[in-house]
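A common beginner's mistake is to predict each chain separately and then try to dock the pieces by hand. The better habit, illustrated here, is to supply every component at once so that their relative placement is modeled jointly.
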Amino acid sequence: MRPSLRPLTKVLLASLAAVLCTATLASADTITLNASGATFPAPLYGRWFAEYNKLHPEVRINYQSVGSGQGIKSFTGGLTDFGASDAAMSDAEIAAVKDGGVTLLPMTAGSIVLSYNLPGVTASIQLPRDVYPAIFLGQITKWNDPKIVAANPGVTLPDLAITVAYRADGSGTTYNFTNHLAAISPDFKAKVGSGKTVKWPAGVGGKGNEGVAALIKQTPGTIGYVEYGYAQQIKLPMATLQNQAGKFVAPTPESGSTALSLVELPANLRAFVTDPAGDGSYPIVTFTWWLCHTQYTKPGVADAIKGLAAWCLTDGQKLAPDLGYLPLPANVVAKVQDAANQIK
Amino acid sequence: MQTATAPLPTPGTPWVGNKRAQRSKLFDSFFSKSTFLASWGTVALLLWIALEVGYAALPAMRQFGFGFIIGTQWDPTSDQYGALPLIYGTLVSAGLALLIATPLGVAIAIFLTEDYLPLKLRSFCKFLVELLAAIPSVIYGLWGIYVVIPITTPLGNWLNAHFGWIPLFSTHSSGPGFLPAAFVLAIMILPTIAALSSSSLKTTPMNLKEGAAALGATRWDVILQISLPIAASGIIGAAVLALGRAMGETMALAMLIGNNTQISPSIFAPANTIASLLANSFGEATGLEVAALMYLSFILMALTLGINAVAEVILDRTGASTRHL
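With all components supplied together, the output reads:
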């Protein structure tokens, strides 16, 4: 038995040595960035990181879409080089980061739309500002409610019960949507409040965008909130919503970008657009952030992140509309670029 | 009754004549020690998990105490946590599933143990039933969404429209809810009930059956008056074990129960179970919510452990009660 094994052992040893050599050679000039966080922008990030790796083979980025909360935890615990979150980080969460400080970079944005299943209704329905919070509070329960009928002249609305579909899993989408509802409806703020998981007074919960979409598709009369990119991809009808200025605006990349361009970003770049002003603004838009350290001790990491961010903010933004995200307006890009340049 | 021929070693002196025996003795002791370690390791692991979960749950235990179990609000926004709707949802969905699965499972068990079918066909049927246990739970969930819900929704709405005065049918059906969840869950626990029931039905001694037949009992009499009573405690044990499995089921339920943390008497209403809330909420939970979720896990663990222990005791008794026959 033994002699016959020897050549094999030699081959194994040789290949092991070869692997070790290439690994050490490779590690001399490549860098791997570990990141994790939000699921909402994950498709765009995946595309960005793959494209960037083609242009800069020496930088590899591992992004795990584990959710904003987990992304913050891993980043705070030092497990990742940067994190990603739909809700940025709270002051308490920033205070918990021990070394290196925190720089928040809004990298992309998206709209949240109300999709529905109304058999026989082909036009996009219009929902006024006082109506859709009431629907999600379970106060308006029929599609032919006088308030909905009044806002949709010429549309025959069926005598159908409204089923509310929401995200059962904790999510940044819920966070931003409930923030918007709480901003425009004091009643909603008092009864439900806002957060990544809230206690919905009525309806059924699905897991993820796909879970909510399945609920909407399946049961006539269902309305739910999903991300614009997702709704567009699977061709769900989207409601036209009344904005702060009183105008009814359909969710489009343009109306979303308009809303974002009117936002005044504070110095820490953490701005929640809960109720955008402007005639042409779609009312439910949100930034999503990268969570970086202001100072990195690991060599090369700061430069790699800066290079990556610079590319994502310029060429990367052009990929956003294809995937249903909103390209950042020029004034926002300039501010984010400034902040990214401060990373050391 | 062996008449000894080989000389036995004098007591006290080790058996050195055979090298092989010595080696195998060494191996024996190694083997028995490692099985000892492995079995106690399992127990230690269980304790360790319980301790870890309990430790992580401490902040919530301190804050809410036993009031947690009867609290009806689960509201992460205001950090108010009560487990009653979740315990209710868990027990009711598992109970409903058991109600559907037990008669079916026992019927399958009788069909497969009495010789209604040629042996080959019977083992094929048995194989098919056992195959149900091999289907991943997410597939059951998808099947539930695309097949069961479109059936239960109109059924629920019809029952609600005509018999809405019965509390069980008091809400309209908005798709997911107790009924589709319990139905899918029933199919998932069917193999457990069928397999365990048929093995306890098989313990019915042949001479009792033959005796009954000799006294003029029909096959129907034999099944109802001999086989079933003897297997009864085994069947109950099987059902209890299945209940424990149903309570811990996560993925299919998260997809079908509707994830609405409320208490409603209607079987069409959406609800939530402990396991499905855990699966949905852990990723984004922070602070006290994590502790509250851990407290919930602790309760679920205690419930399923208790139920499994009951099942073991019942199944053990069946063995004892039929051994003397």
